[in-house]
Amino acid sequence: MNRAVFVLALLITLPSHALQVSVSPTETLEIAERSAVVKIDGKLDEAVWASLDQYDEFVVIEPDTLVKPAHATWVSLFYNQLGLYVGVQVEQPPETRIARLSSRDNRQIKRDSVGMVLDTSGEGRYGYWFGINLGDAQMDGTLLPEKQFTSDWDGAWEGATSETQTGWTAEMFIPWGVVSMPKQAGARRIGLYMERFVAYKDERWSWPALPDTVPQFISALQSVSVKDVQPKQQYSIFPSASVTQDQIDGKTNYRAGADFFWRPSTNLQLTATINPDFGVAESDDVVINLSATETFFPEKRLFFLEGQDVFTASPRADTRGAGVGNRGAPYTLVNTRRIGGKPVLPVLGAGESARTKDQIQPNDLLGAVKVTGQNGQIRYGVLAAFEDDPEFLVQGAQGARRVVGSGSEYGVARILFEDQPGGAYKSFGALSTMVLNESGDALVQSLDGHYLGENGKFKADAQVFTSDKDGVDRGFGGFVDFEYAFRQGVTQRLGIEYFDDAVDVSDLGFLQRNDNFRIRQAHTRTRSDLSWARSNQLDIRGYVQKNSEDLFTQGGLFVSNQSVLNNLSQVVFRLDLLAASYDDLNSFGNGAYRVEARQMASIGWASNRSKPLSFGGKLGYQGEELGGDSAVYSLYATWRPDDRLVLDLMFNYLDRSGWLLHSRDRMMGTFDAEQ
After folding, report:
1. Cβ atoms within 10 Å, residue 222
2. Which of 113, 285, 357, 502 has the fewest C-beta atoms under 10 angstroms from its C-beta?
3. Strands 365-375 vs 353-354: parallel, antiparallel or unpaired
């Protein structure tokens, strides 16, 4: 069926009174206010949709050709005191539509979807993103300047889709009460971004035109306005009860609690929890880590996710990577996974040891409270949490006894001043954390600053902090990062960091190591004007570092290249060149040792993942620290006979020769291993 027939059929099915309107990127679009009641079922069959203007300003941003898309996408919007309503009607032939059911926030699956970003601050300070896939799977999260997306936040909004003869439609309803907004009377500006992903073409379309290869995002959204939005006070109470049977100790534990959410105004939210039950939180991946550096696990508990973005003091805290280059572990002073984590072991007598089960069992929380808000150009947040006293079974020469330890008390305070003189974004913030425990207290204070030029080409972020922990000297550390976009698709980053050997933020934050001076850089080039590929991204990054004893502790060059071929298959190549250096961590406090220069290389291929059957594989090589060669082989296949059934088959094989591991004290050993 040709395009003309589809367009004619689509025009017939459009609401008879809807008006298609063009809008300039610099224009402020006034959203219509309507009192209509809409059932969010994705069908756009209520009369209100026929009375609204429709907008189709989409261009192709992935690949970043910025051309007009192959199919039309019409967007309609209206609002009332309850929230914002968005209707999307898309043109797409039936045989090309891809709907796949999944859990929430699964962005790895290739399927048709529409999405939206709202800058509810109105000034490019913070925002939220929402997505609905064909088949009704939702995605959402938060956004900080300029492109710090996270998918940790799960909001209480509605979305649905429905297929039509000529395409499919989507409805979204965003209650004002689920988003933060400054207190403001009269007209209120909001930044708007609409996006559509077309899976069979593996293309992303957007309005306005903001591909990943340009430096600006949240500061360059389409300006829209609403009037006199003053939502009423909202509150929610979620009671919980749980029963846990401990078959090791032969005990049954009963627990009852509740979560409280109260938003007295658009710019203030209070949340609290008593005896929280985190058993419904998503479990972590199983990671076997035999090194001295800690593995980072993101927060998944709803109470700590709500309003968490105000406590983000640096882009280095972002855990969502973009592009082909490896980002590494985050740097953050507020890692709420520490709250309710492993308990603090009390002081034991000579020859006594606590049972391992009690040392690794997460500590129960008695309660927590959090306040986040905004007053003019100032945003703030306060968090407090209190742990229950843990109990340990201690074994010694006199037999076993039970010892009650001390639960920790946590506190976080954050204030941030934001300004945009002449269009440039500037912000300065302070962050303070404390962890109080009978075995010792840990305090951390920091200052941070951020700058983004008016055209978005130059960006700078810096943070300095100090730690004061009982029994440890006061420590100092900090870093500064610069980023410059030479042109569309070409970006250079430079970072400098220093942490002395006494700084320690691990009681409530996350920092993989201290005693470190490092310089790092990353250069990224993305092109879409190629004959042999649809797009290609080259990422070259490297770093050098040393410790306070002037030992060269690591350095390397890392090259990654990802090509999306014209048949939508992908080829990824990686080459890592590591210099000879000293490892001062993995002897676990027993001194530094020399490791040899080594290389790592891999090449992977993946077929078009929008097809019902997709497959791929990878071959890899890595040199070991004291010599020896290791090989990696992997294959996978995915079959989706329909949108609600998937079969995954994976094969991974690792053959290591010369794997260096710490044994005990100053003894190290190399091992051969297969996995």
Report:
1. 23
2. 285
3. unpaired
Per-residue pLDDT at 233: 76
Q: CATH classification of 3-227, choosing from 2.60.40.1190, 3.40.440.10, 3.40.50.740, 3.10.50.40?
A: 2.60.40.1190
Residue type, 441: D
Asked if residue 561 has pLDDT above 90, the reply is yes
How is residue 510 annotated by DSSP? B
**Domain residue ranges of the chain, discontinuous segments joined by +:** 3-227, 232-265+267-449, 530-675
Over residues 270-296, the pLDDT tens digits come to 999 998 876 666 677 788 889 999 999
**Alpha-carbon distances of 223 from 174, 578, 594, rounded to whole Å:** 18, 47, 57
The H or E element that residue 48 is part of is helix 47-50
Pairing of strands 399-404, 458-469: unpaired
Q: Calculate ∠ Cα 563-566-568, nearest 5°.
A: 70
40 to 83, 161, 394: CA distances (angstroms): 13, 9, 57
399-402 long-range Cβ contacts below 8 angstroms, 24+ apart: none
pLDDT band at 302 (very low <50, low <70, confident <90, very high): confident
> Angle 217-220-224 (CA atoms, 0-180°, nearest 5)?
125
Rounded to whole angstroms, the Cα distance separating 411 from 435 reads 7
**Residue 262 one-letter amino acid:** W
The closest alpha carbon to 476, from 463, 485, 488, 486, belongs to 463
Q: How far apart are CA 620 and CA 19, in angstroms?
A: 56
Contact yes or no for 387/366 (Cβ under 8 A): yes
- Does pLDDT of 1 surpass 80? no
In angstroms, the CA 454 to CA 384 distance is 37
The Cα 496–Cα 395 span in angstroms is 48
Structure tokens at 1: 């069926």
Spatial distance between the Cα atoms of 318 and 459, rounded to a whole number of angstroms: 16
Contact between residue 651 and residue 617 where contact means Cβ atoms under 8 Å apart: no
CB-based contact 583:546 (threshold 8 Å):
no
Residues 6+ apart with CB under 8 A from 193: 116, 117, 206, 207, 208, 210, 217, 221, 222
Cα angle value 114/117/120 (rounded, 5°): 150
Residue whose pair of structure tokens reads 């502790």 in the numeric block: 553
CA distance 191 to 218: 8
Closest CA to 593 of 546, 626, 637, 634: 626
Lookup result for tokens 């993946």: 606
Type of residue at 454:
E
Q: How confident is the model at residue 28 (pLDDT cuts 50, 70, 90)?
A: very high
- Collapsing DSSP states into helix, strand and coil, what is residue 316? helix
Predicted pLDDT at 288: 86
Provide the strand spans (E) within 284-441: 353-354, 365-375, 378-387, 391-396, 399-404, 409-419, 425-436
Specify whether the CB–CB gap between 199 and 190 falls below 8 A. no
pTM value surpassing 0.70: yes
User: For residue 622, which of 653, 556, 576 has the smallest C-alpha distance?
Assistant: 576
The per-residue pLDDT for 319 is 60
Residue 414 to residues 188, 226, 262, 311, 600, Cα–Cα distance (Å): 26, 30, 20, 6, 42
pLDDT mean across residues, the chain: 91
Closest CA to 508 of 536, 537, 469: 469
Cα separation, 662 vs 668, in Å, equals 5
